[in-house]
Specification:
six-stranded mixed sheet; four-stranded antiparallel sheet; alpha/beta; Uridine Diphospho-n-acetylenolpyruvylglucosamine Reductase, domain 3; 12 helices; disordered C terminus
Length: 329
């Protein structure tokens, strides 16, 4: 039971800190079933209730049977409180992203209804390594390369230091048969190609330990990102209008004095606070706003997602959410 012990140690801090209830996202795969097993074992010792949440995306034939089988596996080791939610996946920006959006919307419904102390997700060290490589391939910034956070609001990922081989071993130790998602074998998905081709090749050419090294890189970058985000937050809070009026105004001279890494974070957060949808801003959106500070030559109003407008006037940047068709005065 060595693998089970490793997972129990990973989840123990969260279970012991819970007041009454923990929810777990379960797909039926090895990672989430192993997480559920370890959490239930710890929860029984701490008198904490466990709720398993299974999302049926309806993307494959007999997906309802897969969900029912996962529910049955959960009952084998004592989790009887199981919620199966069927979601409708609207294909907007690719299958993976669209399914993720639908899944988290369902998770949010459960959180609002059940009010668990934590909602555990089964992302592992392997998932973290894949995320770092995907960020590198996209030319992403440090926040993307920092990978997934262990905690983000109600969501907790206690297995980010546990590899996939260990979760498979936990299932074997308890005689649990995990589901093999055919999407995890489909090379049309970039993440699958990273998992099946790129990471094994790196391990072969660079030597073992690449996955662990990528995980450590993410952890170090996460510390840097947290610090820079904190500096940006402090700066922005000092600039806020105490009257709580609409929009934001920031002094260009003070923005110019900031290190670029902090300034870009300030600009991005200011735009989000004015109503841009979370996650809607790319580097291409931020670059012209940055130019209003560092390369000013009389540019006009810049329009951004969510109806946010930014312009420079009298040495200040003004951020305002403008209804469609209106213009700043």
């Amino acid at each position: 039971m060595k693998a089970t012990l490793a997972l129990r140690q990973a989840v123990r801090p969260w279970v012991s800190a819970a007041q009454s209830k923990i929810a777990i996202g379960v797909s039926g795969g090895a990672d989430s079933l192993a997480l559920a097993i370890a959490t239930q074992l710890e929860a029984a010792a701490h008198q904490v209730d466990v709720v398993a949440v299974i999302i049926d995306h309806g993307l494959q034939e007999n997906s309802d049977r897969v969900a029912a089988k996962a529910s049955l596996e959960l009952t084998k080791f004592g989790i009887s409180d199981v919620i199966i939610k069927r979601v409708s996946v609207e294909l907007v920006d690719g299958m993976e992203a669209s399914a993720r959006r639908a899944r988290y919307a369902a998770f949010e419904e459960v959180i609002a209804e059940m009010k668990p102390d934590y909602f555990l997700l089964a992302h592992t060290l392997n998932d973290q390594a894949e995320s770092v490589l995907l960020g590198l391939a996209r030319g992403s910034g440090s926040k993307s390369l920092a990978g997934m956070q262990e905690r983000n609001g109600s969501y907790v990922r206690p297995l980010l230091h546990i590899d996939r081989a260990t979760t498979l071993a936990v299932c074997h130790e308890h005689g649990v048969e995990p589901w093999q998602d055919p999407h995890n074998e489909d090379p049309s998905y970039l993440r699958v190609r990273v998992r099946k081709n790129i990471l094994p090749m790196m391990e072969e050419l660079l030597g073992p330990g690449v996955i662990n090294a990528l995980g450590r890189t993410a952890e170090i970058l996460r510390q840097d990102v947290t610090a820079l985000d904190g500096y940006a937050e402090e700066f922005l809070e000092r600039q806020l209008d105490p009257s709580g009026g609409p929009g934001l105004e920031l002094e260009v001279s003070e923005l110019a004095a900031l290190p670029q890494a902090v300034r870009i974070r300030v600009l991005r957060e200011a735009i989000y606070r004015c109503g841009a949808p979370e996650g809607s801003l790319s580097a291409a959106h931020i670059a012209p706003i940055e130019a209003l500070v560092t390369d000013w030559h009389g540019q006009g109003v810049i329009s951004l997602p969510g109806g946010v407008k930014v312009w420079r006037i009298s040495g200040r940047l003004s951020f305002l959410n403008q209804p469609r068709g209106s213009s700043p005065q």
